[in-house]
UniProtKB/TrEMBL annotation:
Pfam hit, one: Gelsolin
Protein name listed in UniProt: SEC24 homolog D, COPII coat complex component
UniProt record similarity statement: Belongs to the SEC23/SEC24 family. SEC24 subfamily.
Gene that encodes the chain: SEC24D
Cell compartments where the protein resides: Cytoplasm, Cytosol; Cytoplasmic vesicle, COPII-coated vesicle membrane; Endoplasmic reticulum membrane
GO cellular component, one term: cytosol
Domain of life, per lineage: Eukaryota
Organism: Esox lucius (Northern pike)
Domain Sec23/Sec24 helical: from-to ranges: 773-872
Record's bilayer topology term: Peripheral membrane protein
Amino acid sequence: MSQQGYVATPPYSQAQSGMGGYPAGFGSAPSQPLYGHYGGQPQSFPVPPTGVALKVVRPSLVIAVGPPPAPISQALPTSHLAQQPFHSAPPPAMGHPPLGSPCTGPQSHRMPSPQSPPAGQPMGGPPSMGGMGRPYPGPPPPGAGGFQQFGPGAEGQPGYPQQPQGTVVTMCALISRDCPVFLPNAGRQSLTPVLFGTGQFGGQMAGPGMAGPGMAGPGMAGPGMAGPGMAGPFQGGAAQMAGPPQKKLDPDSIPSTTQVIEDDQAKRGGQVYATNVRGQVPPLVTTNFTVQDQGNASPRYMRCTTYSFPCTADLAKQCQVPLATIIKPFATVPKNETPLYVVNHGEAGPIRCNRCKAYMCPYMQFIDGGRRFQCGFCSCVNEVPAFYFQHLDHMGRRVDFYERPELSLGSYEFVATLDYCKNNKSASPPAYIFMIDVSYANVKSGLVRLICEELKTLLDNLPREEGAESSTVKVGFVTYNKILHFYNVKSALAQPQMMVVSDMAEMFVPLLDGFLVNFQESCSVINNLLDQIPDMFADTNESETVFAPVIQAGVEALKAAECSGKLFIFHSSIPTAEAPGKLKNRDDKKLINTEKEKTLFQPQKGLYEQLSKDCVAQGCSVDLFLFPSQYVDMATMGDVSTHTGGTVHKYSNFQVQTLDGEHFLSDLRKDVRKAIGFDAIMRVRTSTGFRATDFFGAVHMNNTTDVEMAAVDCDKAVTVEFKHDDTLSEETGALMQCALLYTTISGQRRLRIHNLSLNCSSQLSELYKSCETDALINFFAKSAYRAMLNQPLKTVREILVNQTAHMLACYRKNCASPSAASQLILPDAMKVFPIYMNSLMKTGPLVGSAELSTDDRAHQRLSVMAMGVEETQLLLYPRLVPLHNMDVASDVLPAPVRCSEERLTDAGMFLLENGHSLFLWLGQACTPELVQSIFNVPSLAHISLPVLDNPQSKKLRSMIEALLDQRPKSMKLLIVRQKDRSEMLFRQHLVEDKGLHGGASYMDFLCYVHREIRNLLT
Ligand SMILES: [Zn+2]
C-alpha cells in the first residue's frame, strides 16, 4: 500500500474539447473551453519536469464509477461570463484620520489572562498527508443486493430538460483502498469502456426519450426502472455501448453529506476550537463547537474556501480553486463565547500602519525595544506613539500582550473618533420607519390590521445596547396607496395627525418635528394611531400603489433627521400607479432557456439604481415584506433591498387567518429585534502578494475596494474573492484584516476588526487538504447567481460543471496516487463537493423551468447573495429527519438521512428543512398510532399540527421550534402526504434525486464529472 516515491504519471495532454458539452443540459455546443469561474483562459495541465517526484497525498476516497465514455467531440462556448463590479470609481478614503499626536492614555478593557491555551488543537479536516483517510462507508458485500442490473439500452437518466434520455453511464464498482474490490464482476467490467454515441450531445434537445415530467421522482435506482422495455438511451447510440450489462452503483457507496456532517460532529463536536494556529481548518458549520479567540477571527465571522493559499498565481490558476473568504461581520455568537471587547485608543483614534492603514492587530511585530512596530501587511516600520509604548518581554512580546485585545485577539472593536464620522459630526441613533400599503387588498385581507396590532407590542422590543434601559431607536409611520400619508405622533399630541403628500414626482417630507419619535415617549399617541389606521382605510377602493416614492420618502425623512435607519415596507402588488418607478408585467415564460432569460432577473435600471445609491449614502436599509398574489417584478422591487443590506420577505397568496399570519409575524419580530449596524463601510486589507478583487453580498460598491452597506445585520455575509499579484511566502503566510466602520444602535461610531491568517504553500496537496467545501459552495452559489444576470443559464451551469471537473482533475494529477482511470478520486475535504454543485445547478434560479415562478426564482437569487456559509449549506443540502422512530426521551435530534426518495419509507414520517421551507412528510402507511399521537385525528384528510399533550407531539413541536429559532427566517410548516399533489413541493428538495424541473441525479452527475475529469487527464 505504500505510495512513497511515486513519480508523476505520464504527461497530461491539453484538455479535451468537449468538456463542457453536457448533453445540452449543462450547456450545448460550446465552441471554446471555459474555465475558471466565469471567464478564465483554458488551462492545460503542464507536464511536470521529468524525474521530479510529486508530493503524494493518498486520497481517502476512491470511487470507480465505471468505464467512462469516450470523449465527446464537441465545441465549447465562446462566451465568457463578464464579472461586473457594481461600479467603479476612484477609491475615497475609508476614514483615514491622520495619526495625530499622542494623547491621553488608552482605556482598553482589561482582558482576562487566558487560561493555559489548549495545546495546539489538531488541524481539523482531512487526515494528515499520507493518511488514508476514512474509506467511504460500507460497500455492500460482493453479490449483495443494491446493484441494479441494467440491460443494454437501459433506462436513461433524464437530466436537464434538453438532455437526451439514457445517458446511462453505467457505473461499476466502488473501490476503497481499504476494501479493495467488491463485486468482482463489476470491477472487471469497469475496464470495458462504454462508448457514448456522439451525435446526440449538444444537439437541440427533444426527440424520443427526452426527460419528461413523468420521469421525475423515484429516480434511476428504482428497481422498476431497469429492465427490458425501457427507452433506448441514445439516438443511435445504444449500439455503441460496449460490453455486457452494466452494474448500477450502490447509492450508499457514493459520498454522503449526512455522513460527512456526522463524522465531523463526532470528531470535533463539543470541543473548544482555539484560533491560535495559522491556517487551521475549522470544524464544519454544521458541527457544534465552542470558539476561543486566540488571535484569529472565529470561523463564525470569517470562513475561507481554503486555509492554505497557493504561493503563486500560476498554481492558483492551475487548480482553479477559488480563493475566497465569507465574512459575516455581525455573526451571532453563542452565549458561552466571549462578545467582542471594545478598545479605545483615545482622541487620536485607533493605531494604524502609516502606509497601508491596517489597524493594530496581532500581526504587528514590535521591535526596537518596543519603540517601533513592523506592519504584518505591508512591512512598513512605524513609530509607536508615546502613550502606547510598552516594554517587550524576553520573547519580544509586549508585556501588556494579554491586556490588550488588539494584540492578542482575532476580533475586537475600536471606538471611532470624529474623523470616522460623516462630515466630522458624531452620528445619531438610527430610526425605523414603518411604511404600510393600505390599498384595497391589504385592508380587506386583514393584513393592515395584523401589522398594526403587532407593532403595538413589537415596538417595545426595538434593539438596544447591552444593559441599556430602553432603545434609542426612533420610530416613524407612513401609510400609502397612490399617495403617501405621514403621521405626526409627537408625545404632546392628544391625537396623531396625518399629512398627505400626493405629488409623487417631487417627494418631500411634510413634517420634521413629530415624525420620528421615541416610542416610549410617544407610546400612547402611537398606539392610538395603530388602532385607527385599519379603520381609517376600511372603506378604501384604491387598488393601485406606488413604490419607489415610498422608499424616496423614507430616505428623505432620514436625511432630514440626519440619521441612518431602516425602512420596513409592507407591500402587496406591482406598483402600477402613475408615478416614478412604475412597473409593468414583464414576466415572459417564453424567454426561459433562451439568451434573453437573464433579462427576467435584471432589475429595471434608472430610478431604482439611483434610489439604491441615495439609500446607501444615507445609511438607509430597506426591508421589504411582499404579499403578492401575482407577478410583482421581484427582480426590480427587491433591488434596493439587496443593495442596502436589507432583506426581502415574500409571502405569496398570503392569508391572515392561516399559518401565513404567524409565519410573517415571526419574520417581522426577528427582523425588528436583530443585531444590526448602520451606515457601514468595510475594507479588507491583505498582506503583500494578494488582494481582494471581488465582493458578493447585499452591498454597494462605489469603487473597487470599499464595500458599502447601508446596514449590516447578524445574518448578512459578504463573500470576498482574492487574487494574487505576487508570490506569497510559505513563511509569512497570507494575512487578512476586515475592518468594518459602522454606527451602533445607540449612535456610536465603531470599527469592528476581524483578523485571519492563512498558510501558503507551493504544494497543491496542502491547498486541497485545507479546503472547506461549505465555503466553496457559498462562493460558487453567489458567483453563479451573479453571472446569470449576464449569461445564459446553460453557460453558467456549464462553467460550474467544468470547474468542478477541473478542480478535481487537478487534484488527481497533482496530489493523488496513481490509480486506474476508472476510479473517481476525490480529495477528502471535498468529497461531497459534487453533490453541492449539482444541487446548486438544480436550484430554481439556475434550472430554467417554465413551471417555476419568475418571482420565486428572482427572490431566491437575491436571498442567496447575502447568505453566509451555514445558510447556503442548508439550502443546498436540506436536512431530512426521520421521525417515526424518534426517541421522545432524548434531547438529541434523530440523525438526518440522505436527501433522496430512496430514504423515505411508506410507514415513515419525515421532517425536511432547508432554512426556507419546512415540510412534514407522511408516508401512506404511517401507523395510526403515530398519526393519532401527532395529529389527534384518525384520518389525514385535513390536517394541521395541533398542540397535544403527549410525548411524541411535544417532542416534534419542540424540534420544530428549535429549528425555527436557529434560522434567520421563519418557515411555514407544510404537511404533505405521500402521493398527494403537494408532495412535488417536497420532492424538489430531495437533492440527490433527479431534479423535478431538470437536472441530473447525484449519481449521474458524479459519473458525468468523472468522465470530464478523464477527458481532462487524457
Ligand atoms: Zn502596513
